[in-house]
Write a structure and sequence with these properties.
This protein is of the alpha+beta class. It contains one helix and three strands. It has one domain (about 1-70). It has one helix at about 1-15; strands spanning about 30-40, 45-55, 60-70. It starts with a helix and ends in a 7-residue tail after the last strand. Bound molecules: zinc ion. Zinc ion (ZN) binds near residues 24, 55, 57 and 58.
Length: about 80
Amino acid sequence: MHNGFILYLIIIGNQSSKCPKCKANYFSITKTKEDYLGNDFANPKKHIFRNYYRCRKCNHEWAKDIYRSKNNQHQF
Ligand SMILES: [Zn+2]
């Protein structure tokens, strides 16, 4: 079913936002900044954003690129 698949994606998304250093879970992670990098060359229908995160437990900072479909944005 679609609902189960969406739930699965949410769980995977949360797991990927663990601190890479001390493995703190996403409750300890703050998103500090988001940069817009532009369109994906291989897939022009997608935007690339670079998110910056900081762990409140160990103060480790890192960045992660995420892809967002243009369909998710309101263009009307
Ligand atoms: Zn950490």
